[in-house]
């Protein structure tokens, strides 16, 4: 036995340690990086939505640029707003200005098909041609050799440059005479250059002198990021070529660093399409993973400490079943047999625990039986008390009426109405008789000891029988009763169901105005049949729909003497509960509908 316990302790302790180390390793290698990336995307999505809301509500360019800088500071991600052609919003001050310019619509013919621009200088955007830091370094070259040629593509009267050439000769005429001498490429957009042939219009060339170079404040511009600039170039090309723009989250890697790219289209106040282009680096998570690897030495020390704690825990676990057995036997000594010993081992301790559990279960079953008998006795006593309380309460009114009538007759007052008072007393006596009979029947159903017997019968025949019994009341009130019945055989107690139908139909007749309408319907639903009794008349208030099943409930107190004992629906409720079937009442467009279900044979 000792060896078995030692083996269990060793295996459980070793397994726990291996599980912990494996869980840490898997979490570090598989889930942590993925979790960080997903969390980053969720945070960026929320931040972009907030940025978009602020962006659409402001117009100042400086405020827009500051908004982009704040976004980077808060979320460590670059965001830029593009127009529908992929041009960066807020970079109108990043261009070169050319004067004395010629435009060639065919770059292969230098001396023909040229157009001289005299009216005003041409502004060439260059933020996709050169990085800002490089432009600052090369600005002197343009100042010294200001003659340049710009090649680009044209779409919808907008020029998109993809190459800029410079040469030392500052004479425009020599440009047309010495072909090939200007071929030194200063700046270029390689992505657009590769796709230039895909445009509908052929590439064009612009030749002129650099009049001015406009450079935005480098410290407040996202254009200093070459990775973002390259991605923006690719995005603009897709827009210009009318390719499908990827708006889902994109992943790419550059210089061994993972990046997330998000593109969110929107509409500005003018109804124009704009894009919120966001680039986020996942370099922090790579650093965190590397830090965790270096932290492994501490994890090993922690695992050793955990082994010691686990060994102590499982050694206590061996003794725990014995402690549970002791606690269980103490409870049994105090006649509490509800406690169980949860030991599933195959050794002697497990066998002993099972024997004690069996003994406890057997004793508990006898105690439960005794408690059920006591509960039944308690229910009978409560039913008796309820019966006495109900009778004493409900008999006060008829007894008071009878006492008043007898006093009037004894005093000889209004002798001409003697018959009226005798009739009133007779009605109250009859009502008390019905009340006591109903309460006795209700007490029988509520006692919990009544056993209902089931038999087979046709529900449509039973409904017609009840209707024939109540037909005189229907004729007196000139009520139109429509019986939509199907021949369905059900399993229930026929006498008790007849009582329910009588109560429902009597209640409908009682609350239907003269010349009103009552509809009785049977509907087959799989293994059940639904019986409904719907009458025209006033609706029942929603908060009263559940209360009408209570004993002595009467919706219109003023009609007490004309109506029943207030127990009919309470009796019906208990009968239907004994049948274990659904029932209820709902308001309809024209009145009220009572319904219940019975099981088919």
Automatic annotation (TrEMBL):
<keyword id="KW-0808">Transferase</keyword>
<dbReference type="InterPro" id="IPR003594">
    <property type="entry name" value="HATPase_dom"/>
</dbReference>
<dbReference type="Pfam" id="PF00672">
    <property type="entry name" value="HAMP"/>
</dbReference>
<feature type="domain" description="HAMP">
    <location>
        <begin position="316"/>
        <end position="368"/>
    </location>
</feature>
<dbReference type="InterPro" id="IPR050351">
    <property type="entry name" value="BphY/WalK/GraS-like"/>
</dbReference>
<feature type="domain" description="Histidine kinase">
    <location>
        <begin position="390"/>
        <end position="601"/>
    </location>
</feature>
<keyword id="KW-0067">ATP-binding</keyword>
<dbReference type="InterPro" id="IPR036890">
    <property type="entry name" value="HATPase_C_sf"/>
</dbReference>
<dbReference type="GO" id="GO:0005886">
    <property type="term" value="C:plasma membrane"/>
</dbReference>
<keyword id="KW-0812">Transmembrane</keyword>
<dbReference type="Pfam" id="PF02518">
    <property type="entry name" value="HATPase_c"/>
</dbReference>
<dbReference type="InterPro" id="IPR036097">
    <property type="entry name" value="HisK_dim/P_sf"/>
</dbReference>
<dbReference type="Pfam" id="PF00512">
    <property type="entry name" value="HisKA"/>
</dbReference>
<protein>
    <recommendedName>
        <fullName>histidine kinase</fullName>
        <ecNumber>2.7.13.3</ecNumber>
    </recommendedName>
</protein>
<keyword id="KW-0597">Phosphoprotein</keyword>
<dbReference type="GO" id="GO:0016036">
    <property type="term" value="P:cellular response to phosphate starvation"/>
</dbReference>
<dbReference type="InterPro" id="IPR003661">
    <property type="entry name" value="HisK_dim/P_dom"/>
</dbReference>
<dbReference type="GO" id="GO:0004721">
    <property type="term" value="F:phosphoprotein phosphatase activity"/>
</dbReference>
<feature type="transmembrane region" description="Helical">
    <location>
        <begin position="295"/>
        <end position="314"/>
    </location>
</feature>
<keyword id="KW-0902">Two-component regulatory system</keyword>
<keyword id="KW-0418">Kinase</keyword>
<keyword id="KW-1133">Transmembrane helix</keyword>
<dbReference type="GO" id="GO:0000155">
    <property type="term" value="F:phosphorelay sensor kinase activity"/>
</dbReference>
<dbReference type="InterPro" id="IPR003660">
    <property type="entry name" value="HAMP_dom"/>
</dbReference>
<dbReference type="GO" id="GO:0005524">
    <property type="term" value="F:ATP binding"/>
</dbReference>
<keyword id="KW-0472">Membrane</keyword>
<keyword id="KW-0547">Nucleotide-binding</keyword>
<dbReference type="InterPro" id="IPR005467">
    <property type="entry name" value="His_kinase_dom"/>
</dbReference>
<dbReference type="InterPro" id="IPR004358">
    <property type="entry name" value="Sig_transdc_His_kin-like_C"/>
</dbReference>
<keyword id="KW-1003">Cell membrane</keyword>
């Amino acid at each position: 036995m000792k060896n078995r316990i030692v083996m269990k302790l060793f295996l459980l302790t070793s397994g726990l340690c291996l599980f912990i180390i494996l869980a840490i390793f898997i979490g570090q290698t598989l889930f942590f990086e993925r979790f960080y990336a997903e969390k980053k995307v969720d945070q960026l999505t929320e931040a972009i939505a907030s940025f978009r809301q602020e962006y659409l509500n402001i117009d100042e360019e400086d405020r827009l640029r500051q908004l982009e800088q704040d976004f980077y500071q808060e979320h460590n991600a670059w965001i830029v707003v593009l127009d529908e052609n992929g041009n960066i919003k807020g970079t109108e001050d990043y261009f070169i200005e050319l004067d004395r310019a010629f435009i060639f619509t065919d770059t292969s013919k230098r001396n023909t098909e040229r157009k001289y621009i005299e009216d005003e200088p041409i502004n060439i955007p260059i933020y996709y041609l050169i990085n800002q830091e490089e432009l600052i370094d090369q600005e002197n070259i343009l100042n010294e050799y200001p003659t340049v040629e710009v090649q680009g593509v044209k779409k919808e009267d907008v020029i998109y440059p993809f190459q800029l050439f410079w040469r030392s000769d500052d004479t425009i005429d020599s440009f047309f005479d010495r072909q090939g001498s200007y071929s030194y490429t200063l700046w270029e957009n390689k992505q657009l250059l590769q796709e230039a042939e895909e445009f509908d219009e052929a590439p064009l060339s612009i030749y002129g002198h650099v009049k001015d170079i406009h450079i935005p404040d480098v410290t407040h511009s996202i254009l200093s990021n070459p990775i973002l600039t390259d991605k923006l170039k690719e995005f603009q090309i897709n827009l210009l070529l009318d390719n499908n723009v990827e708006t889902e989250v994109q992943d790419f890697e550059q210089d061994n660093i993972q990046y997330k790219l998000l593109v969110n289209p929107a509409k500005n106040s003018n109804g124009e399409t704009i894009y919120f282009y966001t680039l986020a680096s996942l370099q922090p998570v790579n650093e965190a993973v590397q830090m965790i690897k270096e932290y492994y030495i501490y994890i090993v020390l922690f695992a050793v400490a955990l082994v010691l704690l686990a060994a102590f825990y499982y050694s206590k676990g061996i003794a725990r079943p014995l402690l549970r057995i002791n606690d269980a036997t103490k409870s049994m000594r105090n006649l509490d047999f509800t406690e169980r010993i949860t030991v599933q081992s195959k050794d002697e301790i497990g066998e002993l625990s099972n024997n004690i559990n069996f003994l406890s279960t057997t004793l508990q079953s006898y105690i439960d039986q005794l408690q059920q008998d006591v509960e039944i006795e308690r229910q009978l006593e409560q039913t008796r008390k309820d019966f006495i309380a109900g009778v004493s309460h409900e008999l006060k009114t008829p007894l008071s009426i009878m006492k008043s009538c007898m006093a009037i007759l004894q005093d000889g007052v209004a002798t001409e109405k003697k018959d009226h008072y005798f009739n009133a007393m007779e009605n109250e006596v009859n009502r008390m008789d019905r009340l006591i009979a109903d309460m006795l029947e209700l007490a029988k159903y509520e006692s919990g000891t009544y056993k209902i017997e089931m038999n087979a019968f046709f529900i449509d025949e039973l409904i017609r029988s009840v209707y024939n019994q109540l037909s005189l009341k229907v004729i007196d009130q000139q009520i139109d009763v429509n019986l939509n019945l199907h021949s369905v055989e059900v399993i229930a107690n026929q006498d008790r169901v007849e009582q329910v139908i009588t109560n429902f139909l009597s209640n409908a007749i009682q609350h239907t105005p003269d010349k009103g309408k009552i509809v009785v319907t049977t509907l087959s639903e799989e293994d059940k049949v639904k019986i409904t009794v719907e009458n025209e008349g006033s609706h029942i208030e929603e908060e009263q729909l559940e209360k009408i099943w209570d004993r002595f409930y009467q919706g219109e107190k003023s009609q007490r003497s004309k109506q029943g004992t207030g127990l009919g629906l309470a009796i019906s409720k208990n009968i239907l509960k004994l049948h274990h079937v659904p029932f209820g009442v709902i308001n309809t467009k024209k009145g009220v509908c009572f319904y219940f279900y019975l099981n088919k044979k």
